[in-house]
Amino acid sequence: MNRLSTSWGAYDLTRFPEHPRDQLRAWSAADAYLLRHLAGEEGAAAVDLSGTVAVVGDRWGALTTALAGHARVPVQITDSFLAQQATRANLARAGHAPDAARLLTTRDAPPARVDVLLVRVPKSLALLEDQLHRLAPAVHEGTVVVGTGMVTEIHTSTLELFERIIGPTRTSLARQKARLVFSTPDPARVAGSAGSSPWPLSYVLPADSDSGAGAGLTVVNHAGIFCADRLDIGTRFFLKHLPRARGGAHVVDLGCGNGVLGTAAAVADPDATVTFIDESFQAVASAEATFRANAAADAKAHFLAGDALAAVPPGTVDLVLNNPPFHSHQATTDATARRMFTGARAALRPGGELWVIGNRHLGYHVRLRKLFGNAEVVASDPKFVLLRAVKGDR
Questions:
Q1: Using CA atoms, how far apart are residues 121 and 3, in angstroms rounded to an integer?
Q2: What's the rounded Cα separation, in Å, for the pair 213 and 381?
Q3: Residue 190's Cα: distance from chain center in Å?
Q4: pLDDT for position 393
Q5: Beta-carbon contacts of residue 11 (< 8 Å; ≥ 6 apart)
Q6: What are phi and psi of 330, to 5 degrees?
Q7: Do residues 384 and 234 lie in contact, with contact meaning Cβ atoms separated by under 8 Å?
Q8: Residue 86 in contact with residue 14, Cβ under 8 Å?
Q9: Which of 11, 130, 200, 269 has the CA that lies 20 to 30 A from 124?
């Protein structure tokens, strides 16, 4: 737990899931800079927060928690299930009622009118583009639009995006390696941007051996999905060696992204039931769109935004397919992979298998051997290794 001090008060904040040994902070200098600006501590007048305040991309709820007592029910819009859960916990810890903020996902309809639009600049420029397009109908001439991010996260392309969709844009001076972005709504630009998002994108995998089990599949990507306009090389390598599920098996595509692994498994075995899980709401929507575009009408599938396998009953899964992330925003960490592996062992039936693709240098085999007592290299190349771990009877 770490404390964010503001002129409005001090807030003890944590990420989700909370872990006592987690050293990663639940807020950044960019969050603190934006809150100081809103409170009038950066040389300009305090921002009027009496209207509808929308907070886009609040990573762990720091902004929403601080604003809950000073804005009229701020609206958080996030692509992250984990961020949404962290926000709920942080609001409760700060003494706020559950309805002190309205929590929406990037797939929900945004507010009809926004008077203050606050944007925590995401890692994905595509996600920022999509969200600005979706919010454009709610922006009016008097809307205050302020973005925030670390200096390394705000690029010329970021500013050009605000400028193109919202209106004239400028940046602040840097403070503690953070910067603010100010956009003045141009009614003509905002009106032209409404409803014109280029997302989602789709493409068809070539019907050749390079696409492996994914050959000929249509892949659908909503904004923010890794490698949205092409198949990433790790997934492509996995598809070349994808295991065939036994008839009627329960398969989980864990960290599903666009769902191509689980979809390929479902197409190869029409009797399988596939559960697609990701902490990104955009990813789950992409996986469902990819599955619907390829699987038979009576194919069985479930789509779940969640924390790894926490919502899957123990001992109910036959096969887990996993391409785990090794970043949490800008931080490099194996915490997510460890949670996925531990959850997979609990969810698998005896004899069930976890198949994991990863960069060679990540050394996932060490963790898997500790958890499962085994880890076999199925295939490898100079960059990737595909591992198989089997749950024993014990």
A1: 22
A2: 18
A3: 26
A4: 75
A5: 3, 4, 62, 65, 66, 90, 93, 94
A6: -90, -5
A7: yes
A8: yes
A9: 11
Residue 359: closest CA among 331, 387, 329 = 387
Nearest to 147 by CA among 283, 30, 13, 27: 30
Cα(340)–Cα(241) distance, integer angstroms: 21
Angle, helices 335-347 vs 364-372, to 10°: value is 30
Q: Is 112 within 8 Å of 87 (Cβ atoms)?
A: no
Q: How many residues does the chain have?
A: 394
The helix, strand and coil proportions of the chain, stated in percent and rounded to the nearest 5, come to: 30, 30, 40
Closest CA to 6 of 44, 34, 26: 34
CA dihedral sign of residues 82, 153, 51, 191: negative
Q: Which pair of tokens denotes residue 336? A: 């997510």
Sign of CA dihedral 159, 162, 168, 172: negative
Helices (H), the chain: 29-38, 62-67, 81-93, 125-135, 156-165, 187-193, 233-240, 260-268, 281-294, 335-347, 364-372
The residue whose two tokens read 């997979």 is: 344
pTM (2 d.p.): 0.95
